[in-house]
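Second opinion, please. Please look over this fold, written as tokens:

===
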Amino acid sequence: MALITADRDRFPNIPWQLVETRHEAGTEGVLETLFALGNGHLGIRGAHWAAGDADLPGSFINGLHEIWDIKHAENAFGFARTGQRIIYIPDANNFTVTIDGESLSLAESTVLDYRRSVDFSTGSYECRITWQCRSGATVTTTERRAVGFASRGSLGISLEVAADRDVSADVTSSVINRQDQPVEDHSTHDPRRAGRHAGRVLLPLRIEGSDGSLRLAWEAAESRQRVGLAVDHWTSAGHQPFETLAGQDESSVRYVLAVGAGEPFRLEKSVSYAAGRGVQDSNQDAAEAAEAGLRSVADIFAESEEHYRQYWATSDIQVGGQPELQQAIRWNLFQLAQATARADVAGIPAKGVSGSGYEGHYFWDQEVYLLPYLTYTNPDGARRVLEFRHDMLPAAKIRAKELSVDGALFPWRTINGLEASAYYAAGTAQFHIAAAIAFATNRYIWATGDETFREGMGAELLIETARMWSSLGFFGKDGQFHIHGVTGPDEYTAVVNDNLYTNVMARFNLRAAAELDHAGIDEAEREFWMQAANRMQLPFDEDLEVYSQDNDFMTLEPWDWTTPRSKYPLLLHFHPLVIYRHQVLKQADTVLAMFLQWQDFTPIEKRRAFDFYDPITTGDSTLSACVQGIMAAEVGHPEAALKHFTDAAFIDLDDTHGNTIDGVHIASTGGVWSSLVSGFAGLRDQGPVPFFDPRLPAEWDGLSFHLKILGRLLHVELDAGALTLSVRSGELLDVDVRGQLLSIGAEPVRVALEPVEFPERTVFPSGPPTASLPIVRALG
């Protein structure tokens, strides 16, 4: 069931803001995600202090996690041994406000006016509520929040209380250790959700507070990771706190005062967190490290505003004539910034720092869905993510030996570099993560010309992943190179032979490594890689004239498409073995391969593959809609392209997959960026020069954005009849537009675009009837 689009009175369409004008019980958890703030390092969920027992309030630091020994029901060699889960850090985003003895509560008090918003242009959150108190007073509370960027561990909060007459106010500001609060563990019901630890996680190292200041530090029981926290308070009239209490699970600063009419009480709360390598030394006081990072609330808001001023100047994407989509696009772009801006040398969790979903792990979607966005908008950020993967090489080499392959085998899901996926069929068997890392490496080098990275870390990543493929696969009796016992991106088909996506991406990986001029490669190894790539087995069904997802996919029993929609996503209602036996997809596996390796397939091959696989793709994966939309645009299905794109843009805003409560689907937000840039603008990369083949939807007036390529800032503007390119910063750039090679400089170059004609969709007998296709938005 739609959330945002179904109630535009409650959530008005404002291009630069997400606004809620009325509080309704029952949606708090999803809205905590939608109104969250973050910077890639620190994340604060959008919980309201007056909402009472909200669903999943809390705060996170990227990479700060606890570990435990995985207990397998039946053990086997090489199974993942160490579980990892992101920690709820002690949460400073808490207040209680009591007026004339009445504790203000959205559930119990009378609300006259309500408005809360997150402003994409400044990165700030604001919630203003007017209350009719039982004492007769009318009181307005205004809370504002922002996270720092130059000071990435900082959080600034202000709370103002204003009244129309003299009132007695009791205001408490709290820090709560939510990690060790008793809550229900939902992970047994839904594998997408994070579990909870049974025992205590955060052990206190320092718990001190006085005169409105708190200095706190904890250490995780098993991982021994530390987090320090410093909090200072300031009030508008110099009020001294009534009491300051410090405890291992809750600390508070309380103010009891009279608030006069026209004399509002303003409380500012400056928060600083310290975590990571800098506070791991036992001689380092984590609370002191946090104290050193304290900034004034005004400075934190200024940092956020300046960051987004610069961000939007080159990262905004404008769509003409589509105000509802424009708001959704900006919300998605805002989430990308919040998940990546200050991650520095770290991974990007599947939920960013907006929630605990997928336990804070890093997956392949980091490289395939997020690195395109980062590479073309924040190349330094892309490099740091790849540096983070390079840091994992030693552990990846050890893991490769465990699984009897050469080179490096990166974990399917991880935080600390060790494999954390306990279900190997949909985890370790997804060897294609190696090619994802190689692909992102190659794209970054291509798009930036960073020779230092290419000759150093980049070469190592390409070489060690190529070595893994060359030992994992083998030359069969047919002379072809085969890769058996793997799972592709489509997790509804597991542990198969010659998965097309895996083989296509492995072929790319082998060729990219073989083309390196690197002393670490001997000629025999180079020749083997080239032979393996050139003779890679790509399953093809001669009768249907369609590339098969794997060797046996075309022999599987078709899925029963009369299955009621209440039974989707299938992974929550059917045993994996039931799903594996059927011809049904969680996401567009082969279609994705043809997007990423676009130059390896003919237009008719792409067209027939899309027509075959799109109808049997459930969209149960949030990674699917964006890719289906991109390829629908390329192969000439404009209505399907726009529908898939719209599904992707509203996955979280409308909570169409039912798990937005656990955090933003960050990979999907990256997919929204790719849908616009690679789908409708038709960008294809890693060829001789950037290539554009646009497909603007007929309903749109235009599309414009910037790309950072080879040190230039390229501005792209698309309308119904032409593509206009100009270099806003830097030297001339060669660009290919539908086969026309152009040299682009500061003067805009307008290229007329003729309509592209396509044949009708190919209808295959194995898929569901067309009427049953729009399934993603209906799942709710």
